[in-house]
Structure to design on (95 residues):
């Protein structure tokens, strides 16, 4: 079964830090064979609170998605966001 990283941002206080993070995170996604399915874009919120950004990444497996998240490369990217974003981040198994 495939693995998906689903990240729903609640707030972003520094767009420049987000751009810096995105460059490094993309390299880690590619290393772990991930494929961006959603990366921002047009949004219409039908229920709940609006989110400034949502990202969905597909990986070949649940384990590979977890390996990506725990990797040195991704954790270095992730550290750039500290104090600048609030988000809900999940790894989900799916088809």
């Amino acid at each position: 079964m495939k693995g998906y990283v689903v990240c729903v941002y609640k707030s972003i206080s520094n767009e420049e830090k987000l751009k810096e993070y995105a460059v490094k995170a993309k390299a880690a996604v590619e290393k772990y064979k991930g494929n961006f399915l959603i990366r921002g874009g047009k949004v219409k919120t039908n229920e709940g609170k609006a989110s400034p950004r949502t990202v969905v990444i597909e990986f070949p497996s649940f384990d590979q998605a977890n390996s990506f998240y725990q990797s040195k490369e991704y954790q270095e990217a992730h550290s750039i966001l500290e104090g600048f974003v609030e988000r809900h981040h999940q790894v989900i198994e799916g088809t």
Remarks:
- The helical segments are 15-31, 62-70, 72-80.
- Residues 27 and 43 are 26 Å apart (CA to CA).
- The mean pLDDT is 97.
